[in-house]
Structure formats: C-alpha cells, structure tokens
Amino acid sequence: MAIRNIRTMGDRILTKKCRTVDEITPKIRTLIFDMLDTMYDACGVGLAAPQVGILKRIVVIDVGEGPYVLINPVITETSGEQTGDEGCLSLPGKSGTVTRPNIVTVNAYNEHMEPFTLTGEGLLARAICHECDHLEGIMYVDHVEGELHDVQYEEQEEDE
Ligand code: ZN
User: Fold this and answer.
1) Is residue 2 packed enough to be buried (19+ CB in 10 Å), middle (13-18) or exposed (0-12)?
2) Which whole number is the average pLDDT over 99-108?
3) What's the burial of 78, exposed, middle or buried (CB within 10 Å: 0-12/13-18/19+)?
4) What is the DSSP letter of 137?
5) How far does the centroid of ligand 1 lie from the alpha carbon of residue 17, in Å?
6) Which of 131, 136, 154, 160 is catalytic?
7) Residue ranges of the alpha helices (H) in the chain?
8) Ligand 1 centroid distance, CA of 122 (Å)
9) Got the DSSP string for 117-133?
10) Cα 134 from Cα 158, distance rounded (Å)
11) Is the dihedral of CA 50, 54, 57, 61 positive or negative?
C-alpha cells in the first residue's frame, strides 16, 4: 500500500471522463488500497481514481462510518436538497457553497466486483455526488454558488 500523489485543479486529467472497470486485477486491487491510504492520509471523506491520475470509474468514500468502495457507480435516485460547504482534495485550502440532493441512491460494485446498492443521506449523499462527478471530469467548482473561500483550519497544532 502506498500514498499516491493527488492531482490538483488545472491538471487536465481531472477534466476527462473515466472508463468502466471490467474486472478486479491485482493492479486494480492495489489501486483501491492506495486510494484509501491516500484519502485517509489527506483527511478527506472521498477520493476518485482520476485524482490519483487513473481514468477508471472507482471511488472511495468514508464519512466516518467506515470505507465504501464504489466501482462503476451509477446514481439511480435522488431526493431532497441540501446547501452547504464543499471542498476537494484536488483544490486544497478552498471551499464553496454547493447545493446537492439530500438523499442519494447509487448502484455500484464493491472491491470483489459484487453489486450492491447504497443509499446515503446528508454528507454521504454529498460525497457520492461529488465523487461521481469526478468520474465525468466535473469538479465541484462548476456547481459553486458565489465565490470560493479559504478554509480556516482549526487543528493547526496537529500539523507536523
Ligand atoms: Zn473532489
């Protein structure tokens, strides 16, 4: 397992559409573990494969209830609305106001290529939308209402 370099906005790979995953190869398995490591290392709640330079339809999400691995995710149902701050590991230090559905249902495959359905509310719904957008080459800044603003870090004493 390894921490991979996170691509930042301006890198053209973040604007590209990702390809479907057909099977779990050893390379894909390593990629998934590395994405989880990279997400936790960066204290993010989600990470999509293009953010580490791989144009495949894989996202990992952990909003504090354990990791979800979503391969070839397809959002099938949304309802409600939430408006709140959103940030991205590919745009460090910034956040902006984005309106998303409050409840999102997604069909995907797990790391064993078994199909499953996940319904998320609140932050999990927001993360699913945000990460699925990455697979289409879309950054959250495309949805931001008003200006991006600087994130105020509250736990600076924990920085090395
Ligand atoms: Zn992002």
Assistant:
1) exposed
2) 98
3) middle
4) T
5) 14
6) 131
7) 26-41, 123-135
8) 16
9) EEEEETHHHHHHHHHHH
10) 30
11) negative
pLDDT of residue 152: 75
Cα separation, 46 vs 147, in Å, equals 23
Active site residue 158: no
Question: In the structure, what pLDDT confidence band is assigned to residue 89 with cuts at 50, 70 and 90?
Answer: very high
CA of 44 to the centre of ligand 1 (A): 9
Query: What confidence score (pLDDT) does residue 82 get?
Result: 98
CB 19 within 8 A of CB 50: no
Strands 58-61 and 46-48: antiparallel
Q: How far, in Å, is the centroid of ligand 1 from the Cα of 90?
A: 6
Percent of the chain that is helix, strand, coil (3-state, to 5): 30, 35, 40
Distance 45 CA to ligand 1 centre (A): 9
Structure tokens belonging to residue 91: 């745009």
